[in-house]
Amino acid sequence: MQDAVATHGPANAAAGATFYCAAAGVYASTHPPVALPSDPSLSLVPHIFARLPAARPDAPALVDAATAEALSRADLRRLVSALAAGLRRRRGLREGDVVLLALPNSIAFPVAFLAVLAAGSIATTMSPFSAPAEIAARVRDTSPALVFATLDNVGKLPPLRVPVVLVPDAFHLADEGAPEFAPFRELLLLDSEPLPGPSVGQDDAAAILYSSGTGGRSKGVVLTHRNLIATVELFVHFEASQYAAPACDNVYLAALPMFHVYGLSLFAVGLLSLGSTVVVMKRFDAGEAVKTIRRFKVTHFPVVPPIMAALVHTTKPAAMPLECLVQVSTGAAPSSRRLIDDFVKAFPHVDLIQGSMVLNLTATRPACSDARLQ
Predict the structure, then answer these.
(1) Confidence class of residue 192 from pLDDT cuts 50, 70 and 90?
(2) Residue 59 and residue 49: Cα distance in Å, rounded?
(3) Is 44 exposed, middle or buried, given 0-12, 13-18 or 19+ CB atoms closer than 10 A?
(4) Which residue ranges form the domains of the chain, and what is each CATH number?
(5) Does residue 181 surpass a pLDDT of 50?
(6) Which residue has the higher pLDDT, 194 or 64?
(7) What pTM value is reported for the model?
(8) 177 CB-contact burial (10 Å; exposed 0-12 / middle 13-18 / buried 19+)
């Protein structure tokens, strides 16, 4: 595999690798371009649900790793639709309004994110563990019409002239009548009169995500519905190229934070369109992750290098072989050669995929012939 990867470097471009342009120093895919939908009025959420397999509506889409509470594919459709309507009818949310999601990982996070977009509004996310001054700065920057927070972090919010709605970690908490979740519960009430859909299309803003990839303070990056639709299509084509088993049979462990673009694009956008099951951890813990992988028969685990290192150091393959695990994908930062070697030694049966976010993917797998490298 190392030889296979090496033949794709600039030094070997003259050996017949037509996808590398020496003059521009740019690599091009050997695969045909992915065609994006041509309908300019299409937005992300209808595209996701059009992609979502219609068979097995009771199959789990999202599962809470701690409690095993599950939302089925049908639940996902229903809750996103109900919450989007509630945001418009009961909170007066309009097209172009911004909603700040200061939420940790939970099965409610993807529902809230997709509902904001389905309402025609714009979602912006941030860590719920941010300092009050950081939250205040984000509110000044984006002028949200509404803030989603949790019971755990609402006390950290600075004084805001913005309505705050508490989102439960699990939907059964909203159903049990806890008064603190009454405003959220009201948003989910269905009305007999359906609302006309918002006039939002591919070129309209869908999300504002913040990046520290430039000098100075973090800056907001506007993603359109078309940007996120392209993410969906990337997942559809990438998953279809990997294994014989259908993507809807895959079980993913969501330990990466969904308030970051890496976790968001995976667990709240791309994977839901495939019908894969996403098992959600509120916060990563190596020991709990190993238990969760075994309990829910997780097949795919997207990580960053520190999580990969923790998995290697925590797991004793002889005692915890994790036979169900098929693939670990790592991105957002480079992995050292030593870490890669340690991982391959600990999990020789697992495909290790490396990439920057979800792009420019390469593969490391012992004794493997991978079509993506051909």
Answers:
(1) low
(2) 14
(3) buried
(4) 2-38+227-373 (3.40.50.980), 72-224 (3.40.50.980)
(5) yes
(6) 64
(7) 0.86
(8) exposed
